Amino acid sequence: MNHDPTTDRASTRLRQTRLLGAVGLTAGLALTATACSTTSAPQADVATATTAPHGYVAGATESQEPQLGLLAVAATGETALHDLLTGETTDLDRVDAAEHAATDGRFLVTSDGDRTTVVDGGSWTVDHGDHTHYYAAEPRVVGTLEGGGPVQVHSSETMTTIAWPERGEAVVLDRAALGQGELDETARLDATVLLPLGEHLVAAEGDTVHVLDADGEPTEPTGSTGSTGAGRPCTDPAGGIVTRAGAVVGCADGAVVADDAGETSFVALPDDAERPTDFAARAGRPTVAGLAGDTGFWLLDVRERAWQHVATERPLRAVVAVDDQDEHVVGVDDTGRVVVVTASTGAVATTDPVVDGDTAPLLQLDAQRAYVADPTSAVVHEIDFADGARVARTIELPFAPAAFAEVGR
């Protein structure tokens, strides 16, 4: 393994944080939505019981830094979690063969042709806007849902949605129960895209995007630009993502954006543009990226409701927007190189080929690093995208991953 001294120092500090909190790990993983205050320790409540401290989550340990790990599933179902802070790898229960996968940054959802499996990576981040909480708990296989095929997963603090676009079906799961290891289905819809947005659901049903309540029922129109009652037209919806500035559903000629108030707007692509069919970005950021066929990629600034096309030297197989100060975008091209575009300057940096260019790459990233895995090998390449696409280290997994997620971000 190649060592990055900066990474090593950070890892030592974060490892100490985790070890100090490890005694608090239990099997209960409830993600309770607690109101934030200045309380930092339990206060005695004479009439009832002890009041939970600020940010308390039952069954989890809170840390000062993200507790990052790589959760991987083999094509044959072996499952393991590699701790990026300690370098340790833990085997989890075996799951069904992973033909398709998606992640929300905590849960990895895999599927074959018949069933869908939910695996809890055991670490996650809760972003409250002005401050952030980092949690760790016990990783485990939660359970399975009937039905398979390509899958999507998205979460808010209270809801997790799983959609199967090819089947046109989607479910809503109670996120607190999911954190406790239970699959509690609260709604089921005929939708190709289903996104949780606060206490709303944004659903693509047929060629229309609707804003629904948490039970999947229609809401009333909420403003002059909103069309939540009748829905917003969206031809051939495909791809969805939740951002800090709203939820996005991709359409044949643009995207529908829904804001926290339940109002929707349409952001049109230029005429004859090749549309993106999926979007990816660092968790919570307002700018997202999607492939533009063989020509490069699109950036959609959700806050500004604006598209930007960025051409690349070679076609990309995957792309994710970092949306940091320098506007980094990380992709993998058809030769297997990692390509880092600095959108603010137009600068481009690349690695040598690190994965098989003929195989769909597995790409994840956080605020500091990108992780690229190749289903044909048992290694993950950690890329410092802010340092000229430098390969910071190579991480060995116990098997070649067919599904892959960075958890804790």
Automatic annotation (TrEMBL):
Residue ranges crossing the lipid bilayer per the database entry: none
InterPro entries attached to this UniProt entry: WD40/YVTN_repeat-like_dom_sf
Domain of life: Bacteria
Assigned keywords, A-Z: Signal
Region (Disordered): 213-232
Leader sequence residues: 1-35
Protein name stated in the entry: ABC transporter
Protein source organism: Curtobacterium citreum
Record lineage: Bacteria, Bacillati, Actinomycetota, Actinomycetes, Micrococcales
